[in-house]
Design a protein that fits this description.
The strands form 2 sheets. Strands 2-3-4-1-5 form a 5-stranded parallel beta sheet, with helices on both faces. The protein is flat and about 90 Å long. A hairpin with a 6-residue loop joins strand 6 (376-377) and strand 7 (384-385). It is mostly helical. It has 5 domains: 3-53; 74-237, P-loop containing nucleotide triphosphate hydrolases (Rossmann fold, 3-Layer(aba) Sandwich), CATH 3.40.50; 243-323; 328-400, Arc Repressor Mutant, subunit A (Orthogonal Bundle), CATH 1.10.10; 402-540, Tetratricopeptide repeat domain (Serine Threonine Protein Phosphatase 5, Tetratricopeptide repeat). The longest helix is centred in the first third of the chain and has 22 residues, at 32-53. Helix 27 (562-579) packs antiparallel against helix 28 (582-598) and helix 33 packs antiparallel against helix 34. The chain is built from 34 helices and 7 strands.
């Protein structure tokens, strides 16, 4: 019998007993509390019968990881238990701290405690590392929504609701919350642990914490992350262990190692506290020290002497690294050096590519490094990372070994250039793989920095930097990494100019100019537009030169010289038409439509916009359609056709959101808020206007002032309404 059926049978049995008790009274003498209890129990039976009729499958009441020895943290446990109490109005507990500080261990221990004490009837655990995007080979995609969907899908299956797992996005979250509202009650309390949120895409965090804020009151959650995220729960930051806790940890290690037991017994327990002080009360540092003592048969005096040699807080890592390297092979150094290049955790497959080692050799090296606590891993199969100080020490050590570090750097940069080319580019559907680039952006940026430092050394690095810049441009532009676009393409322009690869230099100049233009930095845009014109005159074709002409037209329009802008657009359009460049023609037609709109030539503007929209719809160009809808909405709004404008903007926003282009999302929200302002819908307009302003400020967008003014007007109008004016 399933747990759900058992609950139903128990409820029915309790109702039978209550009804038998009531039968001993008359209608006038039956106690009031019995009447109330019967009514409540009947409601519970009806609710459980309803769930049974839905065909709910068997579910798990406890899927927690295996319980391990746990020491201390009494204060944190008490605060967590208070936060999980029924009278606390928050959704639960948020635990953060550095890696290895014991966040998951604390969450699991608290869950076991409340389950044992019958404070919760169901305790479930899910961790983001199971669905972390690696971006390698046949590994599953971890898109921003997919990561959260996978977590909720697994929880739903554990709760006997496989149908919920078949939904996606907001629909899945509503279905998940709907089941919790129906199922949970004072007799069926549910606790969920969301573990390792630092591996979730940022876009998943807001939906997750929105879900947590809407948990029905009998339900609670515990969230762990290496960085503080979200609001609404009690925040616990894990710090160093207390001495009594550290002593308990040492006792446990001593009981499991005869060698360590002999060493510490001979030294005396008063020396244990010296070890605690020397390691700074870090649980991970203490484990490192005890492990090294055990493996190397070090005395307490020798361990303390080595620890105290360092003059700064680097002493522990200096000590471990110095001792461990005595047993390290060249393969070990290659793996450590490779990990030092990664700015974010490295997958096993990426390490194969960067180290150049065979799979078995890499596995052996990782096992040895892990034995010395020189690598940090979130699981048996990675991903792998280094503590920042270990990273620096490894880099310093390998400076003296160019025969190891130089090939590592070359393979590292080549790996990420290939990765960027595989998942980047400027195809119309390139946005579909942007999540993969987002997940590995820290490593891609590290490759870019490394290439920039090497362009003076060799031509290969210069060309690789340009390839990386080209592959990442669409992603960086869509996701709002505008400063990175400027920095990367300025570097690429310098590299290509040095090689006299003028067309590639011109493309980089265009991208720098484009960002300056979108930030209304007109004079900087003009300088880079002139640079593009010069570069394309040296090495570009007619199409490239027409693109430079169109760019100068954009600058002219931003300066207010509409006649010059129109002239340059027309010149570019004629060239594109001659060459049969259809996509470029549609872009310039949009530009001409905007000029016509500025000049209040509404019929001409509408003609341009509708012609382009028809082309974009035939080609299935989602980005183009989002722009077209926005342009047509602006045209309608300028002519006072508010309802029509709203329809266009409401079509633009979901498309912009789908492709993830931040400036289009901000524009659609800002424009829709303007429409709602016109319609007097202030309460609906204000959140959209604020969201648009936030994006505009982050991008440094040219419309940031207009966005700020809209928010100010709406806030003033809301205040006027609230005051009854």
């Amino acid at each position: 019998m399933t747990e759900q059926n058992l609950a139903l049978e128990r409820a029915k049995h309790a109702l039978t007993i209550l009804e038998e008790q009531a039968a001993g009274y008359t209608a006038l003498t039956i106690p009031a509390h019995v009447v109330i209890e019967i009514e409540e129990k009947r409601k519970e039976v009806a609710r459980l019968e309803g769930l049974a009729e839905e065909g709910a499958a068997a579910f798990s009441t406890n899927n927690l990881p295996r319980r391990k020895p746990f020491f201390g943290r009494e204060t944190e446990i008490a605060r967590a238990l208070d936060a999980l109490a029924p009278d606390d109005r928050g959704w639960g507990v948020m635990i953060d701290g550095i890696g290895g500080i014991g966040k998951t261990a604390l969450a699991v221990e608290v869950a076991y405690l409340v389950y044992e004490r019958a404070k919760f009837d169901v305790v479930l655990f899910t961790t983001a590392k199971k669905t972390r995007l690696t971006g390698i080979g046949e590994q599953p995609v971890m898109g921003r929504a997919e990561a959260l969907e996978t977590m909720l899908g697994a929880l739903a299956r554990d709760l006997g609701q496989p149908n919920v797992a078949q939904h996606s996005g907001e629909e899945q979250r509503r279905a998940f919350l709907g089941f919790l509202r129906r199922y949970s009650s004072p007799e069926q309390r549910i606790l969920i642990i969301f573990d390792n949120l630092e591996t979730l895409p940022d876009a998943d965090l807001a939906p997750l914490f929105d879900l947590l804020r809407h948990l029905p009151q009998p339900c609670k959650a515990i969230v762990t992350s290496r960085r503080r995220v979200g609001e609404g729960g009690v925040w616990l930051r894990l710090e160093k262990l207390s001495w009594p806790t550290a002593k308990a940890l040492i006792d446990d290690r001593v009981e499991r190692s005869v060698r360590l037991q002999r060493t510490l017994a001979w030294a005396g327990k008063e020396r244990w506290q010296e070890l605690y002080a020397a390691t700074g009360g870090s649980p991970l540092a203490l484990h490192w020290t005890l492990g090294l003592m055990q493996r190397r048969n070090l005395s307490v005096n020798r361990a303390l002497a080595l620890l105290r040699e360092g003059a700064t807080t680097d002493f522990l890592l200096e000590f471990i690294y110095r001792e461990a390297r005595l047993d390290m092979s060249d393969d070990d150094w290659r793996v450590l050096g490779a990990l030092a290049l990664f700015a974010a955790p490295a997958t096993f497959e990426s390490l194969i590519s960067v180290t150049g080692l065979l799979r078995l050799a890499l596995e052996s090296a990782l096992e040895r490094l892990d034995a010395y606590a020189l690598v940090d891993t979130d699981g048996v199969d990675g991903p792998y990372s280094l503590h920042p100080l270990t990273r620096r020490l490894a880099a310093d050590e390998l400076i003296a070994r160019p025969e190891i570090i130089a090939p590592l750097q070359s393979r590292f940069t080549r790996y990420w250039v290939d990765y960027a080319q595989r998942y980047g580019g400027w195809e119309k559907n390139a946005y579909r793989t942007h999540d993969r680039l987002e997940a590995e952006w820290p490593n891609l940026e590290a490759a870019a920095v490394l290439l920039y430092t090497r362009i003076a050394e060799n031509e290969v690095s210069a060309r690789s930097l340009n390839q990386l810049s080209d592959a990442l441009y669409s992603f960086l532009w869509f996701r709002g990494y505008w400063e990175e676009v400027v920095r990367l393409n300025r570097s690429a322009h310098g590299a290509m100019s040095t090689l006299q690869e003028w067309r590639d230099a011109g493309v980089a100049a265009y991208r720098v100019a484009w960002i300056h233009y979108n930030r209304a930095e007109t004079e900087s845009a003009a300088r880079w537009a002139a640079q593009m014109t010069e570069d394309m005159a040296r090495g570009g074709n007619r199409r490239d030169q027409a693109e430079a002409t169109r760019l100068r037209g954009l600058v002219a329009r931003q300066r207010g010289d509409l006649a010059e802008a129109k002239r340059l657009y027309t010149e570019a359009l004629d060239t594109f038409s001659t060459l049969g460049e259809g996509i470029s023609q549609t872009i310039v037609l949009k530009d001409l439509g905007e000029v016509a709109l500025k000049q209040e030539e509404y019929e001409r503007a509408e003609e341009c916009y509708l012609e382009v929209l028809a082309i974009d719809e035939r080609q299935g160009d989602k980005e183009g359609q989002a722009i077209d809808f926005g342009n047509l909405g602006v045209l309608a709004l300028d002519q006072g056709r508010v309802a029509e404008a709203r329809e266009w903007f409401e079509r633009a926003l979901p498309l912009a959101t789908k492709i993830g282009r931040q400036d289009l999302i901000a524009q659609a929200k800002w424009r829709l808020a303007r429409v709602w302002e016109e319609e007097g819908r202030v309460e609906e307009a204000l959140p959209l206007a604020r969201a648009a302003l936030k994006i505009h400020e982050r991008l440094g967008h040219r419309n940031v002032r207009s966005a700020w003014e809209l928010v100010a007007r709406l806030e003033q109008e809301r205040e006027r309404i609230e005051n009854g004016e």
